[in-house]
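Researcher: Let's continue the batch. This sequence belongs to DUF47 family protein, and it's 206 residues. Same format as the previous ones, please.
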Amino acid sequence: MFGLIPKEEKFFLLFKQMTGNIIEGAKLLKEMLDNFDNPSESQRKIKDVEHKGDSITHEIIQKLNKTFVTPLDREDIYALASKLDDIIDLIDASAARVIMYNVESIPPEAKSLGFIILQSCYAVDKAVAMLGQKSNEQIFAACVEINALENEADRVSREAISRLFDEEKDPIQLIKWKEIYETLERATDKCEDAANILESVVVKNA
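Model: Same format as before. Here are the structure tokens for DUF47 family protein:
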């Protein structure tokens, strides 16, 4: 009978593993964009991190199917796992596009987006670490930070794309970089999606 009653921290520990893995991927992406010494190797490492993320997501869903009593609503556990998985997927997609399009150098706006993605991932990690705690103020504060970072990424991406249309004479380069900027920005959108789930969970369980 006692085996059916879960220890709440099992799900929370798995979520923390997910956010730690996401930070690792975001650090690798930032390093790839900042240094650009061996982008193919960086992309391979990011792909490994993405695979690890898939494994943790799968473990959460398996545990969800086997657990009788869950610390949060089942749909919230599933939604948060999915949104966290989306973040690392977009980090991987950003790195993949840099390689796929054979870019030769990284403009400052892309480096700025890499920095914002990493800061957003740190904020998501901070919020997830507070799940199950008595005070929810830090979760709300982290979610506000994530929202501000997403707005900043949106601004940087818009300005970068606007500059592309003003200055880039090669239409192929324009198409390539427009897609890379949009993919990088979408990674911060996914962080905001995770923040929205976390806020909803806090309000429900207050």
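Researcher: Any comment?
Model: The chain has one domain: 7-204.
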